[in-house]
Amino acid sequence: MPVPSLLAAFAHPDDESLSAGGVLARHAAAGARTAVVTATWGAGTPRAGELAEALRILGAGSPRMLGFADARVPRSAPGCPRFCDAPLDEAVRGLVAHIREFRPDIMVTHDAYGGLPGHPDHVHTHRVTVLAAQAAGLEQLYPDTGTPWRPRALYLATHPRSAVPALRDVIGARKARFSVPDEHVTATVDVGPWMEQKIAAVLAHRSEVERGALPGVIAGLSPDERKRFFATEWYIRHVPVAAVPPQTELTA
To answer: Are 34 and 107 within 8 A, CB to CB?
Structure first.
């Protein structure tokens, strides 16, 4: 049985490696098609080059960039609007085009909180991806972006509350803010066998290592600490409205 193809949609260069690097490497190693769409930073910027190297390590092809500016870094896409300020329809259209071109079986993105730190670009990427995953399958929406295609499943990268105390020791109390009840997690993935690729992809984001962001923190950990904190990835399967059982629908 073929391994499902996987398209990830994340806000910034490095989010793909931190949030889903293990799953991306795992699917690629099994022979699946994998790719990543990044909402912010422009082609030709240093971080776009770092993203290309990270995706090469993960086996996820070449960067696919929507080209909006990071909410906190205007120079990330000179002359382009901040992702959170751009018309919603424009952002959804851009992602729909990638979905219809790549035709993934599965998609992965941020959870509704935008992960542990709740960055506004992460939250907005969640909104845009949920809308685009549905819109891509509707033939009367964005007809100029290709043949309709609807992924079979959308998974949200998340963190269960039980994992937060240990993670807080690594990333700091102020940043470990958002998590979900453990019972909300529908997929717990052991990515230990792909840790070498995942960590190498994280460290490929050299500018984030140098400025002391999370990749920089990870660079300072021992191999055992890296495995302890980052060898598991957690996901919530997003259930679209169309999949809700009839008995749970409102009655007239």
So the answer is: no
